[in-house]
Amino acid sequence: METKFILFSGKGGVGKTSMASTTAVYYADQGKKTLIVTTDPAANLSDVFEQEIGHNITKINGIENLYAMEIDSDKATMEYKERSLAPMRELFGEELIQVAEEQLSGPCTEEMAAFDKFIDFMDADDYEIVIFDTAPTGHTIRLLELPVDWSKHIEESAKGSGQTCMGPVALIQDSKKKYDDAIAKLRDLHKTDFIFVMQPEQTSLEETIRSSEDLQEIGIKTTRIIINGILPKEEAIHPFFKKKYERQQMYVEKAREVFENIPIQTMTLFDSELKGIDMFRKSGSKLFKGSGHHE
After folding, report:
1. What is the pLDDT of residues 153-164, one digit of tens each?
2. Whole-prediction pTM value?
3. How far are the Cα atoms of 24, 154, 158, 168 from residue 91, in angstroms, in the given order?
């Protein structure tokens, strides 16, 4: 089964989870087996789908073909450490194991564990669509740059002392291919959609430009931008809202100029909270209206 990966990025609070969930419901309704995963520590998939989700893949109620998971970073780090240490336990004494455990306690181990979990899903072919509601932009970029850095780092450390900040290089050497494959998939436009969600305002536009350029530097193209939170035109009657609507439209136009070769979708504000399958179907009918290239 050929899997399509769809990654959502953007500053905290721009509506990534809403847009990722809308997209997940849309594809599940198209009959595609869909998984939505979040690596965001402030994850709230449980809230928006109104059911308990957590660290294991969970079937979403009230809809066919949709599954979700919230990656728990502490659990992921423990699992990653244990997997790294398991081969050593049979070969070395307690003292060496302790040294290795200490080396596996750095902050980079936590990042690697999250990324490791993330690429486990990129290796699996149980789903037709895998959607990552990723962590806020800066953090995401760092996670995505890790495999590039680590591939180099693993090679260089193998020539040197054989130590990395994650422990003996031999333990992670076999991960190098996994990381290289993951980056290759992220760069492959047939396999991966990288979508930025932004609000129609100055800081959000600047952040999206910067983040999109950061990704471009590591060979990952932005394939779509969703401008979320736009006031409906018919509501922009009162002078306050009219002025706000006009400012928003100015930033929509600016975004179209800057990202002239990237498809841009707009999403208007709803008068109620975006949560639950029915609401996501409503937002989906707006988001995917007449956009045949998403079928």
Report:
1. 666 666 665 555
2. 0.84
3. 45, 22, 20, 14
